[in-house]
Structure formats: C-alpha cells, structure tokens
Design brief:
By secondary structure, this protein is mainly beta. It has one helix and ten strands, in the order H-E-E-E-E-E-E-E-E-E-E.
C-alpha cells in the first residue's frame, strides 16, 4: 500500500541490497549506454551509513563507488564519495530526494568533471525512479534515467544474461 511520508529517508530506502537498471541518453536523446547497479547500504561500526555501488555497463566497463551518508537536519542528508567533489547536500521531500554535485568521469582515457542534477522519486516502499541531468559548464550533455528496486521487489536481469538483449536483437546501442 502506498503511504505518504513526511520526508523520504534515503538511508532507509537504500538500507540492505538494492538493484538498479538505467540508461544514459546524449543531448539528442539517443541512448548511448545501458547499465545495472548492485548496491548495498548499511551502518558501519562508527554509525555512518555507507552505500556501496557496483556498476556494470553494456560495453563491459565496471565501476565502484562508496557513499558515506549522514543526517544533516530534518530534511537533509550529507554525502561524500571519493570521485565526488566536496560534500553533497541531499534535500529530502515527501516523495524523494534531490541533490547536485560535481563528479569526475573517465571519458576516452581522460578525466572530465561533470555536474549531476539528481532527483530520485519514491514510487513505493520498494521502488524508486531517478532522473539526472548531466551538464558541463552549464550546457546539458545528457540525461540518466534509472529504476531502483529493493531486494524484496526482485532482482534486475544481468546485461549478459541469456535473453537479456532479445528485445534489441536488431538494434545496437550507439
């Protein structure tokens, strides 16, 4: 049953195993990358919430990130990660959370810094949808769309699982 909440608690939603699947679209709207993410959130011995993320992209690239998240007030969370500049203020609302941050990304053998404008919307207790606008020097370079599913909702398919690419059998990801 869907219930209204006072404030979306990012540490509550991401506590335990969570899977996600998503796409990256370039500024023209073409899908240029698909990915899955395996996440696990838990409190460490010092009481900090740690969200570990393991990304697998359709081109074979993998990536890991570990967020440290703490409460920053009634409707605020503060997050840090090694490839994110500074401390990210995560503003919680009844339906989700929004945040903005600078992120180092490897592109073609070089590192570029992009700004991510994230919004995550809770659909129910086990599902959330995220949309991220990605910019460089104020110009939109692409957009990420992602669905998050808590483990109790089921697992997302692996990109290399048998039949995972059947719907796209005659098309390719550019």
């Amino acid at each position: 049953m869907l219930q209204r909440r006072n404030v979306f608690d990012i540490t509550e939603f991401f506590d335990g195993p969570v899977s996600a699947t998503g796409i990256f679209e370039d500024r023209s709207g073409a899908v240029t990358r698909r990915f899955i993410v395996r996440m696990n959130g838990a409190y460490d011995a010092d009481g900090a919430f740690v969200l570990s993320e393991n990304f697998a992209y359709d081109d074979g690239e993998t990536q890991t990130r570990s967020w440290n998240i703490k409460k920053g007030g009634r409707d605020r969370f503060l997050g840090t990660a090694p490839d994110i500049f500074g401390t990210v203020e995560m503003i919680a609302t009844p339906s989700g959370v929004r945040m903005e941050y600078l992120h180092e990304i490897k592109v073609g053998g070089r590192v570029v810094v992009l700004r991510f404008h994230d919004q995550i919307h809770a659909i129910d207790e086990c599902t959330a949808f995220g949309r991220t606008r990605v910019t460089k020097l104020g110009v939109t370079v692409g957009q990420v769309s992602i669905f998050f599913m808590r483990k109790s909702q089921g697992d997302v398919p692996r990109l290399d699982a048998p039949g995972a690419d059947e719907p796209q059998a005659e098309t390719s990801v550019a």
